[in-house]
Amino acid sequence: MVRWLLLGFWILLCFTVAGVSSSSTVREVNGWYQTLVRPSFAPPSWVFAPVWTLLYTMMAVAVWRVSITPISTARNTAILLFLVQLALNFGWSFLFFARHQIGLALVEIVAMWLAILATTLVFRLASPLAAGLMLPYLAWVSFAAILNAGYWKLNS
What is the chain's alpha carbon radius of gyration, rounded to the nearest angstrom? Predict the structure, then answer.
């Protein structure tokens, strides 16, 4: 029973971060974001919501898998790293969309990518499945960082 409550907790946490950060995103997608020069490889705006929904779900399941493993330094470090990358995830949306700080958002997304990589590597020690669930997220943030760099270059 406790393990399922933990899953609910992680889903709630991940989607709370998603919901709060998307509030600034949604306001700007049809406004400021539309005024930017888009990189040629930028996907249509409608792609982001389903991709992020899937990624947040996979992230929640991944951290849940780690959180139900026996208490250890690796498990505790993994959960701490997960929370750090989740905070950086939240911060990126705020910097890019709410503050219109494309260059600072680029610096931040590189830090986020490093935190996701570290999280994935430490997840592997506690649960290889959890690490595997983080790989699509790492791949998407890799693409997002390149996209962020493209927006920065074209709109500086």
Answer: 16
